[in-house]
Amino acid sequence: GRARSPAEFSQEAWGERAAKKVQHRSSRAMPPRRPNTGGGGGTSSAAPPPPPRKVPLRSLLRAASVACGVQFGWALQLSLLTPYVQELGIPHAFASLVWLCGPLSGLLVQPLVGHLSDRIAPANSPLGRRRPFIAAGAASIAFSVLTVGFSADLGRLFGDNIVPGSTRFGAIIVYLIGFWLLDVGNNATQGPCRAFLADLTENDPRRTRIANAYFSLFMALGNILGYATGAYNGWYKIFPFTITESCSVSCANLKSAFLLDIIILAITTYVSVVTVQDNPTFGSDEAAPPSSHEEEAFLFELFGSFKYFTMPVWMVLIVTSLTWIGWFPFILFDTDWMGREIYRGSPEIVADTQKYHDGVRMGSFGLMLNSVVLGITSIGMEKLCRKWGAGLVWGVSNIIMALCFVAMLIITYVAQNLDYGPSGAPPTGIVAASLIVFTILGAPLSVTYSIPYAMAASRVENLGLGQGLAMGILNLSIVIPQIIVSLGSGPWDQLFGGGNAPSFWVAAAASFVGGLVAILGLPRARLGPKKKTTQR
Where are the transmembrane segments (predicted)? Predict the structure, then answer.
């Protein structure tokens, strides 16, 4: 009759899941005996069951296509929203805090959604286990981008002053609500997408890498379309109704781009959700309905699962964290760096606003080139991992990241000491060097989008975790570094003069250390556990 402790809840939940898993595998390993109708042996032996039919690669391709729609909006978010939020009146020092809501939502949303999708039996849902969450997340993204895009107009209804340079508090509040929902939708969609691919590949190492390479390829395609959309400044001509008293040309372009995002997201979500069916031969052991205390013990199960991790799993999480400490300053300030440090513009000073927007558009063009390289690298990712080993590929890519961030610091120093002339336009060589760095970074970004997920999917199979919860745990090693960077990058930059260079120093150091850890601590062998050749 005594109350049970959280640890007992967690241990009992783990014990029940392990027992179910062993029982199910035992039933699969021992098929029913057939009568011995032949004459030969005196003992009857069970005929081995036929191997399950593998999901075709074209189905994996369709299942991964939703990444294009999600990443299209994410590319617009990365390239345009940091400049836009500064136009609304949030200072540069606090712009990174706006992005804090993304990691905070991802801290619990993705693990929780993954856990819930693990608990759904395919027979109990017309769309299977993962696809209802993918569809709901896509709907949340569509609603949130409309909220963000029309935040200036909604702020006007709340009495905002629309004079250039004024702080629009109403628009900022609406923007923050939409931005928060957007990140919730992104996290609620991408986790089940990754878990869906893991279900379809049945944790086969080679097919898991191929599926994640498809996912990375569609992310690259979404990035290309999104950054190209952000680099074009004439969308308001196609959607003339987007220009209002409270929404200038740059705001109207942002609003129009998000309308295009909804169209592409709807198409790709339909392809992934409707045209691909769940794999009926995999994951049924994880689909038992939750007991009354299992949902209650979710957080204890999530964090309590750490004690079951082997050293290879810990190494994947550590390298992932260091990698994202490197990426997040670049993701936050890439186009802002181009507008401020290279084009010497400012969203706060009216006279320098045009130069800043020219730099932001050039930065979006650089990110489009980055995505082209990301897509090309994704195609060859399987061969690279097979030849050199996933750990070595990941480590080398992180060192390339570090060198690129150091190159950005050198470019910043050179640009600060150059005379731009009366026109104020940056020299062609400086712009070209910046674009080259942006382009090269596409290769390590492709590695970041594929290898960590493939490694996590193949290494948690023997831990008794569902793939949804596994992707959520990997997500913790992404969002926790993002929280640290979001809280610290703005004050850190202000401490050294207000530019973006101090954050890039931290990014370069973290990337380099992560590369060394990956090379020394991650195996170069093939991903995933070895297949068992005998059964007991």
Answer: 133-150, 162-182, 213-236, 313-333, 392-415, 430-451, 463-484, 504-522
